[in-house]
Design a protein that fits this description.
Blueprint: H1 2-7, E1 11-13, H2 18-32, H3 38-49, E2 57-59, H4 60-104
Antiparallel strand pairs: 1-2
Helix pairs in contact: 2-3, 2-4, 3-4
Length: 110
């Protein structure tokens, strides 16, 4: 167990074949403790693509932490969208209530 944690810190060659990539993604996702979904596999593959062009190895720990951060970013994005939607709905209700109040009020005499 401790040896496995120690190994995470050392650079590992990046996958060069589809089978290696599948195994690499599975390993990162398992170590991150997240579901093995297409979204998470996509995230790991995208991380590899965004590495510097001269990088041919990277510690697994980098991908594990990056995947966890990616998932946190996605959840935060959804929360922001939810908050924006709720705020928009609140503002629309306030505006409708104000508009309704204007039409119900008697016209002011001239």
């Amino acid at each position: 167990m401790i040896f496995d944690l120690f190994r995470l810190k050392f650079p590992k060659k990046l996958p060069q074949t589809k089978l290696d990539l599948d195994a690499f993604c599975d390993q990162v996702i398992e170590l991150a403790g997240v579901p093995n979904t297409l979204n998470n596999q996509h995230a790991v593959a995208a991380m590899i693509m965004h590495l510097d062009p001269t990088t041919d190895s990277k510690p697994i720990e980098f991908f594990v932490k990056s995947l966890k951060k990616s998932i946190a970013n996605e959840m935060a994005y959804h929360k922001i969208q939810e908050c924006k939607k709720l705020e928009l709905e609140r503002l629309e209700k306030e505006k409708a209530a104000q508009d309704e109040g204007k039409t119900d009020a008697p016209a002011e005499p001239n």
